[in-house]
Structures are given as C-alpha cells and as structure tokens.
Write a structure and sequence with these properties.
The complex is a heterodimer of chains A (about 110) and B (about 120).
Chain A lengths: L3 E4 L2 E5 L4 E7 L6 E7 L5 E8 L4 E4 L2 E6 L4 E6 L8 E8 L5 E3 L3 E6 L1
Parallel strand pairs in A: 2-11
Antiparallel strand pairs in A: 1-3, 3-8, 4-5, 4-9, 6-7, 7-8, 9-10, 9-11
Chain B lengths: L3 E4 L2 E4 L5 E7 L6 E7 L5 E8 L5 E2 L8 E7 L2 E6 L8 E8 L4 H5 L2 E2 L3 E5 L1
The chains are: A mainly beta (about 110), B mainly beta (about 120).
C-alpha cells in the first residue's frame, strides 16, 4: 500500500532564503512522482513531474529530486518570494495506478 | 499544456437537494477521469475512477448511490451529489488522463475544483 508522507507540515521562512520540502513514499515501484502547488481555496497546479528514470527536474527556481531506492523526493525552492506561499503537495502512484497524495507542507514566506 | 475545467466553481444548496458538478477536458480526450474530495487543511482523497463509457470504480467507503458519476464522453464527466447533507460540504476536484500523446496518457491534469456548501 502506497503511503506518502510530507515533512514538515508547515514552514515559515524569511523572503530570499532557499528551502527544501521533503516527501517520502513507501512503495518505490513508481513510474513517476509529481509536486503540486495549491493556493487557499484553489485547485492544484502541477509544478514538476519526475519520471522514474530521472533523478531530478528543474523549472525556474524549483528543483525536484527523486531517489526511488530510499523512497524520497525533495522540492528545493531557491530565493524564496512571498508569492511562493502556498501548500505544496507531493503525489505518487500506487500499484493500481492511482495517485496517492501527501498531506502537504504549508509554506509561508515572510516579507 | 492540457486544460481541465470544472463547473460550477462554487455552489451553495439546501440540504436534501442534488448537485451536479461537471469536469471537462478542453484540449484532449480523457479516457479516464478521477474525482477527489478535499476537506479543509487535509489532502486529496480519491473518491472514484471513471473510464469513458463504463461504470465508475468507487474507493472503499464512498457511497456509489450518493455520489453518481457519469463519463459519457471523452471530454466530460459529471459528479452528482444526491440528497446533499451538510457533511457533504467539501472541495471536489476532478482530474483527467488519456489521449494519444504519451504525456496525456501518463499525467493527470487537474481541474480548478468546485466548492460545495450544503446548508
């Protein structure tokens, strides 16, 4: 059974700092892993999709890594901005090809 | 990128009424659509999976007679909350997957969500 855990549950950092969000998953037989952003009361915005054959993906100030053997992924945000404040969700598929979401990390960037 | 829309974006209804939520894939054909439910400050929980032209598969604990799902075409799935009660108040999000191109087959594209408030 796939379980996705995200640490920390909440994080506050001053503007400009680099930060790392962590995600762990129990079943490493995944074909991809996704990171999403969710603003309060809004839907999901896909940030990065890492295929199982890849170790990382980059988009602008975001970099996501994937280590299947250890069941971990990290989302690195460089030079954080107040506009980065949101909840970040990690999601991995289970063996039935259904996406399992973590509970998210609520990020608050302090101006 | 693929676009998935939902309608309405929010709805308020009286207890006992039924509410229909639409999910549309705008620029690709979605062979599979998923419906999720999200409570405040909680993660998304998969409710059901629907494949075009066949009956939806519901997750354990989800009442199929309560949450009617129809996926009649490759671009539209509907979720009907029947005889809604206040405890059905939640954020409902759909996603779509499918199409000829590989990126559409593997990736789920999410709609903006529908907020339901049952009084």
């Amino acid at each position: 059974k796939q379980e996705v855990t995200q640490i920390p549950a909440a994080l506050s950092v001053p503007e400009g700092e680099n930060l790392v969000l962590n995600c762990s998953f129990t079943d490493s037989a995944i074909y991809n892993l996704q990171w999403f952003r969710q603003d309060p009361g809004k839907g999901l915005t896909s940030l990065l999709l890492i295929q199982s054959s890849q170790r990382e993906q980059t988009s602008g100030r975001l970099n996501a890594s994937l280590d299947k053997s250890s069941g971990r992924s990290t989302l690195y945000i460089a030079a954080s901005q107040p506009g980065d404040s949101a909840t970040y969700l990690c999601a991995a598929p289970n063996r039935d090809d259904k996406i399992i979401f973590g509970k998210g990390t609520r990020l608050h960037i302090l101006p | 990128g693929a676009v998935v829309s939902q309608h309405p974006s929010w709805v308020i209804c009286k207890s006992g009424t039924s509410v229909k939520i639409e999910c549309r894939s705008l620029d690709f054909q979605a062979t599979t659509m998923f419906w999720y439910r999200q409570f405040p400050k909680k993660s998304l929980m998969l409710m059901a999976t629907s494949n075009e032209g066949s009956k939806a598969t519901y997750e354990q604990g989800v009442e199929k007679d309560k949450f009617l799902i129809n996926h009649a075409s490759l671009t539209l799935s509907t979720l009907t909350v029947t005889s809604a009660h206040p405890e059905d108040s939640s954020f409902y999000i759909c996603s779509a997957r499918g199409g000829r191109e590989e990126v559409f087959r593997e990736t789920q594209y999410f709609g903006p969500g529908t907020r339901l408030l049952v009084l």
